[in-house]
Amino acid sequence: NAGVMQNPRHLVRRRGQEARLRCSPMKGHSHVYWYRQLPEEGLKFMVYLQKENIIDESGMPKERFSAEFPKEGPSILRIQQVVRGDSAAYFCASSLQGVTGTEAFFGQGTRLTVV
Amino acid sequence: SQQGEEDPQALSIQEGENATMNCSYKTSINNLQWYRQNSGRGLVHLILIRSNEREKHSGRLRVTLDTSKKSSSLLITASRAADTASYFCATAGKHSGGYQKVTFGTGTKLQVIP
Questions:
Q1: If contacts are CB pairs under 8 Å, which of residues 60-99 in chain B contact chain A?
Q2: Under 8 Å CB-to-CB from A71, ≥6 apart: which residues?
Q3: Strand partners, A47
Q4: In the 8-state DSSP scheme, what is residue A25?
Q5: In the predicted structure, residue A69 carries a pLDDT above the cut 70
Q6: 20 to 30 A Cα–Cα from B61, which one of A64, B44, B88, B103?
């Protein structure tokens, strides 16, 4: 059972371009979380999704950021018109259940660098 | 604001000593988890303790949870250089929408000197 897979591991984008980050949850997991980690900081919650639904996007900037988790395929975090401040590590986690008592498994992250 | 706050922010100890990290949180939780992150890497799940548990062990790790004080501690005994990493606590609370939201603290950077 493969773990949470994120790709790419490293992504370099010029200012103004779009960044697409992918996350394939563990097999059987239908709950996905995205977090952002700035250098030397902790993880900040961005968005929580279930299949085809955004449950909580309270941590995601209102503009330029969007997330989806389609019925088929990976979850996608999309950042449009990237700026230098978007440079960070983006982690995806998945869990078996959304309610109580289950651990979240993390991917290795995508390190986005905006130049 | 961050749900969990780890203390201390950084800790440096000699190999063989014990390391204790604390985590405080604000709202009621269903469970609390500890993760380790090596520099530039992903997170590794260490241990999960439920709100009705007070103590849990896993190898050299011991986690306590005091829900009355809204705090948890992670003890690493007989530390090794390979334990050098950042350690995060993450709380999972039941959101009003009925789902679990996992919120991370700011982390403790542990350095174990050989």
A1: 88, 90, 92, 94-95, 97-99
A2: A51, A52
A3: A34
A4: P
A5: yes
A6: B103
Total residue length of chain A: 115
| Token reading at B47 | 């241990």
* Lowest mean pLDDT segment, chosen from A86-95, B33-42, B90-99: B90-99
Three-class SS of residue A86? helix
Residue B42: its chain A contacts at CB < 8 A?
Answer: 91, 106-109
- pLDDT at position B2 is 37
Rounded CA separation A50/A46 (Å): 14
**Both tokens assigned to B64:** 């306590």
E-strand spans in chain A? 5-7, 10-13, 19-24, 31-37, 43-50, 53-56, 65-68, 75-79, 88-95, 105-106, 110-114
Q: Quick check: A45 and B104 CB within 8 A?
A: yes
